[in-house]
Amino acid sequence: MEELWRAHCAAMAEFGFGRLMYGQTQSRSRAHLGSRDDFLILTNLEEGYTDTFVNDGLYLNAPMVRWAVENSGACSWNWIRDHAESLTRAETEVMTFNLKHGIKAGYSISFNDVSVRSIAAIALIADEGLSQADVDALWERKGREITAMNNVAHLKIMNLPYPNPRKMLTPRQRETLEWVGEGKTTQDIGTIMGLTPATVEKHLRLARETLDVETTAQAVLKASFQNQIFLVQA
Fold it and tell me: Is residue 96 one of the residues assigned to a domain?
C-alpha cells in the first residue's frame, strides 16, 4: 500500500498535483458514511491539516465531499463557485480553513462502485501558484489520462490488505474466520485446526473485538471487505 501510494503521489505531482487525499469506506449507510475507524485515508498532506480535517470531522462539511457522496466521476473545484449560494455556513468555514492551508484549486474524482456500502474519492490539490483556470486548462488536455491513472490506483488499493496495524487479525483469527466463511461449525473448525471448540470461540471473539463488530457474520464480511481473509500468502 505504501509503495503504491508513493508511486501514485509522484505520478500526480508531474501533472501539478503535489498534494493528494484519498478516502474510502465500505461501511457506508444511507444516513452517513459510517464509522471513522473504518475509513482508509491515504494522504501526503501535513499532519496539522489532516488532524483537523479528518480527525476533527471537518470533512463532513467539505463541499467537494458532498459532491463525491452524491456523484461519481471527475469534477472541477469550480463546482464550489457555481454553487456558492447553496453552501451552508459550515461548508463555508471548511473553505476558509482550506484557504489558510493553501488549498485553493484542484479536481476531485469520486469512484463508481457496485456496492452501495462502498464509497471512495480522491482530492487532487493543485500546487501553489496554479489557479483553478490553470487546472481546468490542464484537465482539458490531460483529464482522461489523469482520471484513468486514478481509477487504476483505486482498483489496486481496493485489492490490497487493510493497512491499519491496530485492526489487523492474527493468522489464527484469519483462519477461523475463513472456515466460518466456508460454512463450517465451531466443532468442524476445531477438528480441522486441531483446537478445542473453546479455543476456536476465543479466536472468533478476539477477531470480533479487533474488527469492532458484534457478530461473527459481521466479522467475516468486514474482514473480506478489508482483504484480510482468503489471502494468497507470499
Answer: yes
Q: Are strands 73-76 and 40-43 parallel, antiparallel or unpaired?
A: unpaired
CA distance 211 to 213: 6
Tens digit of each residue's pLDDT (9 = 90 or more) over 116-160? 778 899 999 999 999 999 999 999 999 999 999 999 999 999 888
Which amino acid, one-letter code, is at 218?
Q
Helix (H, G, I), strand (E, B) or coil at 126: coil
- Per-residue CA distances from 139 to 76, 123, 124, 153 (Å): 9, 14, 11, 18
Q: What is the pTM of this model?
A: 0.82
Q: 125, 158, 191 — which closes off a domain?
A: 158
Residue 70 to residue 68: CA distance in whole angstroms: 5
C-alpha cell at 144: 482522461
Range of the domain at 24: 2-158
Domain count, the chain: 2
Radius of gyration of the chain (CA): 21
Strand partners, 119: 25
- Cβ contacts of 148 within 8 Å, gap of 6 or more: none
What's the pLDDT tens digit per position in 86-112? Answer: 999 999 999 999 999 999 999 999 998
Residues in the chain, how many?
Answer: 234
